[in-house]
Design a protein that fits this description.
heterodimer, A: mainly alpha, 10 helices, 0% strand, flat, disordered C terminus, B: alpha+beta, TATA-Binding Protein, Tick-borne Encephalitis virus Glycoprotein, domain 1, 5-stranded antiparallel β-sheet, 41% strand
Chain lengths: 275, 447
């Protein structure tokens, strides 16, 4: 049943993404309202699917690639809906929902069987550590979308094309403010994610830091976001430079999440756990 | 808010106190850290000699890329980073202290009119200060007050302490480093393998390959492992006992994620190994017999026959029959190896005694793999992590908000000025300020 709910969620996210894209082209307010409602419905359904799977598996749904991607898509949509409730950034949906759709589509292509939990993952820290990390990733997805929007909008302004795209994107100032908000929240969550992972590693292996590839890459990402925040706050970098650096740091984050788990060996490798 | 330029223009000081250096170091640390996730870490040097070209091997050797996170240059970068952090903090401190000492009750009405948030009312009537004063800070009736410009100035300030958040955040990094250093100098790490029933009072240090006494003994009473239907391990568990002077002082079953700790030393379930065990029967000529159980990795002495025995190899099925290779050493140390097949007898002669030896049974026991460690620095690391997270909370989300209310007279009119400023979350403060503004307006009855 949770598999059916999951498939239905994929479909609903697809419809909602299409809605947001139609809105960006036609600028019809009612389309955006409908797309948001559809997305909210999909999110509720997705929540039920994730919880159902949790209950069916008997362990938190984060441990294989299918579940991790599905939960990430859930977090992206959740963070986006929450963010829009407060700030209402114009056209943000057209940038965020395609990312969420790609994530859940990738998830649906992965093997979905529930495998039993290896001893090392049997810990109360699993749901906290994984959920906090995924939430931080979701917030950074928003920061990434803001950076892309910033670069697009800035290009329009520089070329003095104040037509189509310019009208559809928010002001540079409000995108920059959104970038800052996402960076502070995302960075704090990433830090808590690394710390909870550390506490867990200490409990499982007697080593709070062992320079395992996942640990190292999350630290690399942390260094880059730390550098970015210092550039923003202290050196006074704004706009373009920050947007580019946000995209670079995000690429590192994607590698930390996917690349390390798929390519490099180590405790977070999805391949090696179940061999 | 930039720290005012210091009179100290020493170039070395200027170099270390720049935030640009911090950004440079953060990016350098990020980029160099990648190497250790690509080049395998902690292998013997010969491994790299085989795997990589000669030139690359030389680079690995010189830059210690085989253990790069402990290499001189990487630790140097971290050291430089710490120094940078300390110098930046020290440089900023006077600025913060000045800000905290600033007297917010000596501001002129002219200055208030230049605040980022402000509103001014003019009324002909008398204004009752005690009626509008509580509106400044939700119901607070006692507010600091002073006489300025011939009027009364009230101050409502909160979150001033949040300026310390930055120091908490940055020093937490140093606290974490201090914890890590404490662990590496005052702690140790190692592995032990224990057979069921076996005990040890020392371990071998993983990096320095020297023996470290525990100060007590640890014994494995039982090891068990269970499997899922898929064949993957479900749980492995060791029943451990701590012995002091031969007496059991603590017993605990440990599993992965649930270690045993005694006197600052922790024992973690890390691995296990199956150990074959065979029972060998010795028949003497006079008809008496003796059954001896042999385990791999263990020597058994049998004093009555002046023999020492061990198991070298066990094959569960050799042409369908279990087979074991055992060794025997006599009192003079002369050894012999024998292959035993189940159901087949072998004759062994020592001195003038003759035995016929046979393999009568085989079973499997386990050896538990424990990670042992002592790390007196770990709580310092946790303290640092806690400070780090609280530091973020304060730096990003606790604002320093100030609101002023000035009531004075000018040309027969009563002037009321409300002013405010915040260093964070302006949107939220603006709403709050607006509410105060409306509340005062309804009391004053003027626009």
């Amino acid at each position: 049943m949770h598999k059916f709910l999951f498939q239905l969620t994929v479909l609903i996210y697809f419809v909602s993404t299409a809605g947001f894209l139609v809105h960006v082209v036609t600028l019809r307010k009612d389309v955006e309202r409908v797309a948001t409602s559809v997305l909210t419905g999909g999110f509720v359904l997705h929540t039920v699917a994730v919880l159902w799977r949790w209950w069916a598996a008997g362990h938190p749904p984060f441990v294989n690639l299918h579940d991790a991607l599905s939960s990430l898509a859930w977090a992206i949509v959740g963070v986006f809906l929450l963010f829009q409730m407060r700030y209402r950034i114009k056209s943000l949906g057209a940038f965020v929902t395609p990312v969420a759709l790609c994530t859940i589509a990738a998830s649906s292509l992965q093997p979905k069987e529930i495998l039993p939990l290896p001893p090392v993952l049997k810990s109360a820290w699993l749901p906290f550590h994984a959920a906090i990390c995924l939430l931080s990733y979701a917030v950074f997805v928003l920061a990434f979308c803001a950076a892309v929007m910033y670069l697009m909008q800035e290009r329009e302004i520089k070329m003095k094309r104040l037509g189509g795209i310019f009208k559809r994107l928010p002001s540079l100032q409000s995108i920059d403010a959104m970038n800052k908000r996402c960076l502070t929240v995302g960075f704090t969550l990433l830090t808590i994610g690394i710390v909870t992972g550390s506490i867990w590693a200490e409990q499982a292996w007697g080593e709070y830091w062992s320079w395992d590839p996942k640990e190292t890459w999350s630290l690399i990402t942390w260094f880059l976001y730390a550098a970015l925040l210092h550039q923003r706050i202290t050196i006074g970098w704004r706009g373009r430079k920050v947007a580019i650096m946000t995209i670079v740091a995000f690429a590192t984050l994607v590698f930390t999440f996917l690349g390390v788990s798929l390519i490099l060996p180590g405790a977070h490798s999805y391949a090696s756990w179940f061999k | 808010m930039k720290p005012s330029s210091s009179k100290n223009t020493n170039p070395v000081w200027a170099f270390f106190s720049s935030v640009r250096l911090a950004v440079f170091l953060l990016i350098t640390l990020a980029v160099t850290s990648i190497a250790g996730t690509i080049i395998p870490q902690g292998q013997p040097l010969d491994f790299y000699k085989d795997q990589f070209s000669h030139t690359f091997f030389q680079i690995i050797r010189v830059l210690q890329l085989n253990d790069m996170y402990h290499a001189w240059w990487y630790l140097g970068l971290l050291g430089l980073f710490s120094l940078n952090l300390i110098v930046c903090t020290v440089k900023r401190l006077p600025f913060t202290l000045r800000l905290l000492r600033k007297d917010n009750l000596s501001l002129t009405s002219h200055r208030l009119r230049k605040m980022p948030f402000r509103h001014e009312w003019k009324t002909r009537g008398k204004v009752d200060a005690s009626a509008i004063k509580p509106l400044l800070e939700a119901g607070k009736t006692r507010l600091p007050e002073s006489q300025v410009d011939g009027g009364r100035l009230f101050l409502a300030e909160k979150g001033k302490w949040s300026h310390w958040g930055l120091y908490i955040l940055h020093s937490s990094i140093l606290v974490i480093f201090a914890g890590a250093l404490t662990g590496s100098f005052a702690g140790f790490k190692g592995n032990i393998m224990l057979l069921e029933g076996e005990s040890t009072d020392h371990i071998v240090d993983a990096s320095r390959s020297k023996q470290i006494p525990l100060g007590f003994s640890i014994r494995c009473d039982k090891f068990s492992v269970s499997f899922y239907d898929t064949g993957a391990p479900r749980e492995f568990k060791s029943d451990l006992a701590v012995l002091e002077g031969g007496n059991e002082v603590l017993k605990k079953s440990i599993v992965v994620n649930d270690p045993l700790e005694y006197k600052g030393i922790s024992f973690y379930q890390s691995s296990y190994q199956a150990v074959p065990q065979v029972t060998v029967r010795f028949h003497r000529k006079d008809g008496t017999r003796e059954d001896i159980v042999l385990s791999a990795f263990q020597r058994i002495s049998w004093p009555a026959a002046r023999l020492t025995l061990g198991l070298m190899q066990y094959l569960p099925s050799f042409n369908g029959v279990p087979a074991a290779r055992i060794w025997l050493a006599d009192s003079e140390g002369k050894t012999r190896a024998l292959w035993l097949l189940k159901g087949n007898e072998k004759i062994y002669t020592q001195d003038d005694e003759q035995f016929s030896i046979s393999l009568i049974g085989a079973s499997q026991s386990y050896m538990t793999g424990l990670q042992v460690k002592k790390d007196p620095g770990v709580w310092i690391v946790w303290l640092g992590c806690t400070l780090l997270i609280f530091g973020f909370g304060i730096v990003f989300w606790v604002p320093h908000q100030t609101k002023w209310l000035w009531i004075g007279e000018k040309d027969g009119n009563t002037i009321v000025i409300l002013a405010g400023q915040t260093n964070k979350n302006k949107i939220h403060f603006e709403k709050e300020f607006h509410k105060t503004e409306q509340a005062i307006e309804s009391v004053l009855g003027v626009k």
